[in-house]
């Protein structure tokens, strides 16, 4: 099929020239230039030069003998073909989405079926209003860039301010630690001084007893050796007194023998050294998640529009390792795949209502169902395919994955499984039913977070299931129906939903304190039950009770 460009602008000649006549090009002809007019700054063929000379008799022209004085190109820089520097861009190849000159067309685009004149393309674009649309788009992008630059500058100021504040906090903490160590040192030295004084007194007393005993036995010894008694009775009396004194001395010697090796030894508390050696710093840095703009997206599929159930309940949200976003719908017993625009592009019906969902590998997710089963679903070519089912011997509620380990709760206990379904251990026992529900694991696996639904508490466990701390906060009000929403980001930030408080808060990784209210009812959040921070898009996704919408927040 011949192109429009070939049948018009290039129909005169297929020859290639280093310099083309400007006037001929303006008349859709391709003719070699033979002269250059410095006054006009244009190139002409012999025929066009005659018309030029009749109009501009005083203009001097340069022939090919003076070609070194001709310009390198006879077109403006913007219109110049980058491959053929002396040629003007006059066409557009729609097959290759490329601007072309005559030489480009001859060499590379003769077989293309959609080559048009730039002039015709411009007319068509004007007719469709594309230029106005592009102008509006560029203006909008310009404003967005200005706003984004301003946001970044403000963020930089806020970052510097928070940095200085943290330095002050570190210095204050160091002072507190120093003061505590100084007090420990003072108390330890005081205890040592008291002990030394007591031992000195005891030893001095023993020295005095020894001195007294030495004097007594010396006198008796001398008396026995030097004096001659006049009667046997007197000799026996002296014997008895000497024997009694000897017994006393023997008792003193035995007592002194048990005391004569009194020393002092210092045994430092091992927990101090163990704790310090286990620390890599004075604290952790928990970047605060801050939101700005938000948008709602409807996740109800068409086949559910006529169902007797009124609204969706997005009970779980997760993203696979390659960035595919999935949600679970408790009311409609399904898992749904969303595209980059948060539109549902695929779904899979489940035999029971799903509580929570977690990512296992690049395309596999695990879903905890109300019927004591874990369903593994694989994302393949934008479709959801059943992979396998893990049947449990206990109730199934919360689920989390970390390095080939599955952590599953049944409401009252936490179990550790391998991904293939082998039970490793019962890690933690709660206080009652619904005391071990939602679960999340820190990126390094060192912290396990469990929601105590009954007590509205967050319990933080170590890797082996030991309780590290218990966090309570008025925002953790989950009510009787809504399931606790819990998520730990790839950076270790802990997010907890409070359904009845209409808040999502950020907690420090050890569960010691609330760091921030991330979103509240002022941000349009009502009854949040699931949350997920999507790292590569910098967005916070929130699922809510009794609504067909999810809210996606842009974060700062």
Please give the structural blueprint.
Elements: H1 4-8, H2 22-26, E1 35-37, E2 42-44, H3 46-55, E3 61-62, E4 91-93, E5 98-100, H4 102-108, E6 115-117, H5 118-128, H6 130-226, H7 232-259, H8 270-278, E7 291-298, E8 314-319, E9 325-329, E10 334-338, E11 344-349, E12 354-359, E13 364-369, E14 373-380, E15 383-391, E16 399-402, E17 405-409, E18 413-418, E19 423-429, E20 439-441, E21 448-452, E22 457-461, E23 467-472, E24 486-488, E25 494-498, E26 503-507, E27 514-519, E28 528-534, E29 539-544, E30 549-555
Antiparallel strand pairs: 1-2, 1-3, 4-5, 4-6, 7-30, 8-9, 9-10, 10-11, 12-13, 13-14, 14-15, 16-17, 17-18, 18-19, 20-21, 21-22, 22-23, 24-25, 25-26, 26-27, 28-29, 29-30
Helix pairs in contact: 6-7
Description:
With 556 residues, the chain is an alpha+beta fold. It folds into three domains: 4-128, no CATH class; 135-278; 291-555, Neuraminidase (6 Propeller), CATH 2.120.10.30. 31% of the residues lie in helices and 28% in strands. It contains eight helices and 30 strands. It has helices spanning 4-8, 22-26, 46-55, 102-108, 118-128, 130-226, 232-259, 270-278, and strands at 35-37, 42-44, 61-62, 91-93, 98-100, 115-117, 291-298, 314-319, 325-329, 334-338, 344-349, 354-359, 364-369, 373-380, 383-391, 399-402, 405-409, 413-418, 423-429, 439-441, 448-452, 457-461, 467-472, 486-488, 494-498, 503-507, 514-519, 528-534, 539-544, 549-555. The strands form eight sheets. A four-stranded antiparallel sheet has the order 7-30-29-28, with no helix packed on it. Strand 8 and strand 9 form a beta hairpin. The chain is elongated, with a radius of gyration of 45 Å. The two termini are 53 Å apart.
